[in-house]
Amino acid sequence: MSSRQRVGRARALRLMDDENPVEIADGRSQDLASQVTISGEVVDVIKEVFAGTSVLNDQNKVSQILAARAEISEKWGQARDAFLSIGRSLLELENVLSKSEYLRLRSGTERLFPFSDATATQFRQIARAVDTGKIPLEKCPGSYGTAYQITLLTDVQLQLANERGLIRPDVTRKEILSLRREVQPVMSPGNRVDVGTLREEKRRLTLRQNALEAELQEIRRRLTELTELVG
User: How much is the pTM?
Assistant: First the structure.
């Protein structure tokens, strides 16, 4: 087998048994080149991240992970304002993978993608906010840090932000943070609690907790192996 070969997406699963760099055809986006280079190192990372799961035996999931990684890596290198496309790719993976597989993906975020799990969470939140209409696409800021701050606004804060003309492409992170400090949710019997925001925060924290627990289990497993080897 040559050091580089061309394979279709339907054969992406074979990458898991190949130690050599390959090129895989990817039709996910017209912005991507017709051939995407997949190195042996990337294959090894995917094997390690999803070891013990059924992902490696599912060519559709493997193809989507490889395609998402290729698209995300390219968008990240081209321009930071491609975070919306990145977020949507991550949301697609969230829908494709099982809960346990998704936790593995999150714990291996920094090894699979050029950003941390915390940054990936911001990308997903922004994409979800735009797709649900919370942030109109044409008004979404060019900075993902600023856009993420908008996703954290309560309904009351968001309404005020719209009234003040703060939901616009050139709004600054400082302006949104200032609004959040000015109008803070008051949790008392006489005030209505934004249940939706609290539920979303709980969901994010639960996912983060599960990811950390999965990572801790892996650390314990490895420590046990090392103890058996070196005492």
Answer: 0.55
